[in-house]
């Protein structure tokens, strides 16, 4: 009895070892993740759209960007696929439509029920050699990179940037009434600081993202800019026209941790 | 790299074609085909041997991730002295960091940037950067490689955008060749740009002052009686903060400066911690006599004023560092003679080799 159990166990171990030792045997496919930025029930339109936040303040966004990183997919059988670290950083920019769809390649074939990720850039990557921070993490790249999403004087990435105009904001020296929310802070390098990294899990409900070699599911996540102003605390543009390196950034981050919801799924099949 | 691949490919295809045509054209030909083609120019760099001064601690900088070469250092030097690093092409790193004052800017209390804009703090002298854990008065940057981005992008310093700057360098007549010499290809990346500046800044080692020669028992290392007395006093009264061979323990402290005219909150601006309010980095004191003015806002023009502050000017503020309280009172008791002796000692920290080394200059 015990011997047969042991043998079964050993056999199982051998099969499992074989399985992990030969990743070529695992069939893979691609999954797309699309971020659809909205303002409540309306599509988000930079510079032309005017929206009203929970405090009743009207505003027109002029920039809306955020980092999505450390992506994990969870399958119906509980197995997780963790996107390899070096390929797990994305910068969603409202003014760069191509940035709003993330393509995850080499995803093991399976039925996935949820995805989780960080809004922001984790502390390890934030303090890594600059040579390991290319692409969207390059503070000196083009308009798709972290250029403008990086604090040079207090090394770190801006996780979420929302800028706009609002009659509720004070008039600045140029005669414009602007507000600027730049939220970052990964917990500090040598001195502990606040940590605004937020983990978001998007459950696909009754839908399944079925990844197959010839089948690419596209999961759409809806990001509601209005949620930045509501949630655990109401954020007022009049009271807080500038939120950057301050304790109050935590309030904004706690709100935007809830700005994303599952919207739907499409599947493209190729033969 | 890609270009060489292409050239290699073309050459080998050509040779193969030549060989094939030779075979088919002259079956049984007796002449062996000797490949002849343009000899590729080898990319060859010369390692730069960085040496830690014998009396210094181990460096903090991770040299393994940025192997220094003579060519990389030279590229960094050219960048350091190039006005193109500022938005309107008027200011280089060397504009505010002048070698004669150990890479400080002696004629401005607060940093002086493009379009005559004035910053909020006194610029720091540059030396022995390999040994520092953090940079700037508030320690906002902890990696030397990332330091240049701060002044380059600061609107009141160089006012540039790194992306635009690198794009300009790619179009410039001289930089692609310099990058190729240093790195083997003319690709100008953020990493190469920053690491070549680091390489140059890492060569800024100041360890040849009379004090150093004294410590290392080398020729020319004699200290005069007042200087020796000053050293003893310094050890007793100053070395708690200005510790070790860098003359700083690299902590952030409040030294009781009056805040009547300047409410700069210092390190708390980057950490947001209340306990860091009004704290600034303890600056290293090498070449201190050459790099006035002093303090984070450059309020003191002379070392005499600095010593006087510590002797009798320290303000009773809640944030005052405990090391600056003596018997419950703010300040460090120092007689006029003692102050003079300490200054005499500080002047032995001037490294004339460093401030005149042609390799560190604009040429």
Automatic annotation (TrEMBL), chain B:
Q: Where in the cell is it found?
A: Periplasm
Q: What is this protein called?
A: Cytochrome c peroxidase
Q: Name one GO molecular function term.
A: peroxidase activity
State the UniProt keywords alphabetically. Answer: Heme, Iron, Metal-binding, Oxidoreductase, Periplasm, Peroxidase, Signal
Q: Which residues form the signal peptide?
A: 1-24
Q: Name one Pfam family in it.
A: CCP_MauG
Species the sequence originates in: Spirosoma utsteinense
Domain Cytochrome c as annotated: residue spans: 225-350
What taxonomic classification does the UniProt entry list for its organism? Bacteria, Pseudomonadati, Bacteroidota, Cytophagia, Cytophagales
Query: Gene3D superfamilies this protein is in?
Result: Cytochrome c-like domain (1.10.760.10)
Do you know which PANTHER family this protein is assigned to? BLL6722 PROTEIN, CYTOCHROME C PEROXIDASE-RELATED
| Transmembrane intervals | none
């Amino acid at each position: 009895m015990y011997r047969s159990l042991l043998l079964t166990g050993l056999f199982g171990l051998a099969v499992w070892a074989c399985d992990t030792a030969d990743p070529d045997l695992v069939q893979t496919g691609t999954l797309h993740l699309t971020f659809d930025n909205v303002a409540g029930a309306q599509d988000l339109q930079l510079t032309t759209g005017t929206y009203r936040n929970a405090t009743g303040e009207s505003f027109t966004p002029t920039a809306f960007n955020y980092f999505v990183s450390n992506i994990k997919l969870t399958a119906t059988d509980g197995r997780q696929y963790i996107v390899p670290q070096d390929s797990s950083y994305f910068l969603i920019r409202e003014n760069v439509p191509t940035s709003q769809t993330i393509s995850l390649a080499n995803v093991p074939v399976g039925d996935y029920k949820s995805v989780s990720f960080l809004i922001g850039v984790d502390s390890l990557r934030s303090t890594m050699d600059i040579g390991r921070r290319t692409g969207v993490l390059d503070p000196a790249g083009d308009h798709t990179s972290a250029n403008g999403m990086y604090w040079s004087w207090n090394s770190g990435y801006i996780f979420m940037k929302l800028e706009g105009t609002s009659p509720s904001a004070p008039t600045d020296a140029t005669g414009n009434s602007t507000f600027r929310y730049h939220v970052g802070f990964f917990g500090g390098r040598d001195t502990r600081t606040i940590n605004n990294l937020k983990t978001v899990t998007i459950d696909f409900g009754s839908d399944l993202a079925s990844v197959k070699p010839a089948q690419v599911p596209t999961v759409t996540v809806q990001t509601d800019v209005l949620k930045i102003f509501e949630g655990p605390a109401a954020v007022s543009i009049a009271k807080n026209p500038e939120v950057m390196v301050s304790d109050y950034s935590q309030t904004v981050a706690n709100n935007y941790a809830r700005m994303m919801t599952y919207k739907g799924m499409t599947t493209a099949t190729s033969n | 790299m890609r270009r060489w691949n292409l050239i290699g490919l073309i050459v080998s295809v050509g040779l193969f074609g030549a060989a094939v045509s030779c075979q088919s054209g002259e079956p049984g030909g007796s002449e062996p085909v000797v490949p002849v083609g343009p000899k590729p120019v080898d990319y060859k760099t010369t390692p730069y041997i960085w040496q830690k001064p014998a009396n210094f601690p181990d460096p903090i900088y991770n040299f393994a991730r940025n192997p220094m070469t003579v060519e990389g250092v030279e590229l960094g030097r050219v960048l350091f002295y190039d006005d193109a690093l500022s938005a309107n092409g008027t200011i280089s790193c060397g504009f505010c960091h002048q070698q004669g004052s150990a890479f400080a800017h002696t004629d401005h209390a607060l940093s002086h940037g493009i379009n005559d804009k004035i910053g909020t703090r006194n610029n720091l002298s540059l030396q022995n950067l390999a040994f520092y854990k953090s940079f700037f008065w508030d320690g906002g940057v902890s990696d030397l490689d990332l330091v240049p981005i701060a002044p380059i992008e600061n609107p009141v310093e160089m006012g540039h955008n790194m992306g635009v700057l690198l794009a300009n360098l790619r179009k410039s007549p001289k930089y692609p060749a310099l990058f190729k010499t240093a790195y083997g290809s003319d690709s100008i990346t953020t990493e190469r740009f920053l690491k070549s500046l680091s390489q140059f800044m890492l060569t800024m080692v100041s360890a040849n002052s009379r004090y150093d020669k004294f410590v290392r028992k080398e020729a020319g290392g004699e200290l005069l009686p007042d200087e020796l007395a000053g050293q003893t006093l310094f050890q007793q009264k100053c070395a708690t903060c200005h510790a070790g061979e860098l003359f700083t323990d690299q902590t952030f402290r409040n030294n009781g400066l009056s805040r009547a005219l300047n409410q700069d909150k210092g390190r708390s601006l980057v950490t947001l911690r209340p306990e860091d309010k009004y704290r600034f980095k303890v600056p290293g004191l090498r070449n201190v006599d050459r790099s006035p003015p002093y303090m984070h806002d450059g309020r003191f023009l002379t070392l005499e004023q600095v010593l006087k502050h510590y002797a009798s000017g320290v303000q009773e503020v809640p944030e005052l560092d405990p090391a600056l309280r003596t018997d419950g009172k703010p300040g460090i008791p120092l007689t006029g003679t003692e102050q003079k002796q300490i200054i005499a000692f500080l002047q032995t920290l001037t490294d004339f080799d460093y401030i005149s080394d042609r390799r560190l200059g604009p040429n």
